[in-house]
């Protein structure tokens, strides 16, 4: 008998906590555009399967970054995707499943006011503005990650490495600055050539593709490479070290990958082309080069 009473008291004490936990639900996407296109997949190249009118509140099944995954009953799989620029993502809560406690009735002489809905709201100090430019939503919580300014490093195919900084604007255009160092030896000439380069570049991403765990953003671009080249010949009878400067235009294409497990980190793999040049006899630079760069997005 004592055991049953103890169990009953424990269940009654736990019930309010469970009801309070049920009050907090998934984020909601509020449509602010006149009409939001609902796509079959998280990309603009996928078919439009419906439209959501302004003011519609769509429960979010998963935040994919630039897209939100919603329930869309008319779709074959019951799922649709809406771009975040079509509205605003907010966290909401609804009343618990249990009936709310009625407040004492006002005195007969007091005028009656319209009944208000029982809701749960966050304190003003904890509300945060949701950025429309967001990255892939990872497992670390409900906060979104913006991919705007990133800094990092790179390695190149011709025994080179360097530092890089990249800034995205409007989700499609990027400006990048690279500082590189390369070394090269030749089978037909003695010595070693060292180069230091400064490369301002611009890139354009025509589209992006998102899944639940990966964000792929292909891009193409062009830039100018300003290089300072030094030739060192380790020989007592050789001439002193020679230096020269060289400017070259380059074209490149690649893709930036962001994984849901590391939403602040972007991994870029690209191939570049520049006209062949020979700063020193026997040291001809490659026309095609591969590079891998990593950017840690601080904003």
Question: Helices, strands, pairings?
Answer:
Layout: H1 2-23, E1 28-31, E2 35-39, E3 48-53, E4 57-63, E5 67-71, E6 79-83, E7 87-90, E8 149-156, E9 160-169, E10 173-185, E11 192-204, E12 209-210, E13 214-232, E14 242-259, E15 262-273, E16 288-297
Antiparallel strand pairs: 1-4, 1-7, 2-3, 4-5, 5-6, 8-9, 8-16, 9-10, 10-11, 11-13, 12-13, 13-14, 14-15, 15-16
How would you describe this protein?
With 299 residues, the protein is mostly beta strands. It is built from 1 helix and 16 strands. An 8-stranded antiparallel beta barrel has the order 8-9-10-11-13-14-15-16. A 5-stranded antiparallel sheet has the order 6-5-4-1-7, with no helix packed on it. Strand 10 and strand 11 (192-204) form a beta hairpin. The radius of gyration is 29 Å and the shape is elongated. The relative contact order is 0.13. Residues 11-24 and 92-144 have low confidence and may be disordered.
Mean pLDDT: 75
SS summary, helix count: 1
Task: Please summarize the sheet with the most strands.
Answer: 8 strands, antiparallel, barrel
Unreliable sequence segments = 11-24, 92-144
Overall geometry: elongated
Specify Rg, calculated over alpha carbons: 29 Å
The N- to C-terminal Cα distance equals 61 Å
Structural class category = mainly beta
Percentage of residues in helical conformation = under 10%
Write down how many β-strands occur, each being a DSSP E stretch of 2 or more residues. Answer: 16
Question: Order of strands across the widest beta sheet?
Answer: 8-9-10-11-13-14-15-16
Secondary-structure element sequence? HEEEEEEEEEEEEEEEE
Tell me the strand percentage band. Answer: over 45%
């Amino acid at each position: 008998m004592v055991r049953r009473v103890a169990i009953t008291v424990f269940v009654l004490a736990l019930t309010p906590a469970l009801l309070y936990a049920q009050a907090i639900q998934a984020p909601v996407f509020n449509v602010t555009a006149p009409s939001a296109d609902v796509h079959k997949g998280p990309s603009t190249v996928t078919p439009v399967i419906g439209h959501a009118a302004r003011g519609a509140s769509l429960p979010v099944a998963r935040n994919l970054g630039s897209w939100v995954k919603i329930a869309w009953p008319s779709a074959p799989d019951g799922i649709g995707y809406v771009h975040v620029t079509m509205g605003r993502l907010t966290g909401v809560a609804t009343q618990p499943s249990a009936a709310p406690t009625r407040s004492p009735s006002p005195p007969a002489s007091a005028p009656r006011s319209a009944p208000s809905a029982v809701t749960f709201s966050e304190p003003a100090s904890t509300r945060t503005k949701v950025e429309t430019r967001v990255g892939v939503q990872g497992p670390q919580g409900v906060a979104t990650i913006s991919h705007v300014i990133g800094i990092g490093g790179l390695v190149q195919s011709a025994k080179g490495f360097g530092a890089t900084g990249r800034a995205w604007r409007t989700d499609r255009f990027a400006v990048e600055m690279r500082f590189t160092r390369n070394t090269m030896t030749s089978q037909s000439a003695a010595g070693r050539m060292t180069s230091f380069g400064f490369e301002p570049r611009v890139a354009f991403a025509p589209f992006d593709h998102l899944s639940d765990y990966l964000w792929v953003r292909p891009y193409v671009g062009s830039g100018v490479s300003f290089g300072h080249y030094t030739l060192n010949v380790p020989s007592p009878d050789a001439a002193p070290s020679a230096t020269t400067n060289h400017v070259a235009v380059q074209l490149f294409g690649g893709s930036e990958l962001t994984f849901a497990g590391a939403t602040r980190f972007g991994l870029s793999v690209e191939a570049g082309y520049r006209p062949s040049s020979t700063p020193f006899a026997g040291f001809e630079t490659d026309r095609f080069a591969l590079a891998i760069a990593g950017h840690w997005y601080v904003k």
